[in-house]
Amino acid sequence: METVTNNFIRNEILKQERNLFLGKIFSFVIIYSIVTLWLNSIRATAPIWFVWLLIIIQFLFYFSIFIVSYRYSKVIGLNEIFAFILFIILAVFGRVNDWEIIIIPLLLITMLILALKNKKLSEKGNTLLSEIQNNNTKTA
Fold first, then answer.
1. Residue 76 exposed, middle or buried by CB count within 10 Å (0-12, 13-18, 19+)
2. Sign of CA pseudo-dihedral 69, 70, 71, 76
3. Is the dihedral of CA 88, 90, 95, 100 positive or negative?
4. By the 8 A CB rule, do 30 and 65 touch?
5. What would the pLDDT profile of 38-47 be if each residue is shown by its tens digit?
6. Whole-number Å distance between alpha carbons of 49 and 59
7. What is the rounded CA–CA span in Å between residue 76 and residue 115?
8. How far apart are CA 93 and CA 134, in angstroms?
9. 110 within 8 A of 104, measured Cβ to Cβ
10. What is the DSSP code (8-state) at residue 31?
11. How far from 56 is each of 25, 41, 45, CA to CA, in Å?
12. DSSP state for residue 6 in the 8-state scheme
């Protein structure tokens, strides 16, 4: 009975981590897309200070997509150095000749597939699971 309960709790923590990651990455992609479209539509007529402000905001959301993906790739078990180099290369190449139109959707699809196949908990998830297990053994 305890194993079934532990597996259920583990699966629920895994779902929460996956949903949190997917929520973050989809939010950043949507906001990045909105800011980019807005920036492209007002670039010629808006004051230069406002255009630069939007460019800075756009860059923040652009790099947030890769930062969130990098952090989740560590949870999945990708080598930390390899993942860091990979996401730096993707982020840089995404800014070349509008390649972000290809790189961001491919990154999104790849990370979605990896997140759905992931069976590993993050350090926080493992800590939470062990605390729950310790509380269950103390009360039993």
1. middle
2. positive
3. negative
4. no
5. 999 998 899 9
6. 15
7. 8
8. 47
9. no
10. H
11. 19, 16, 18
12. H
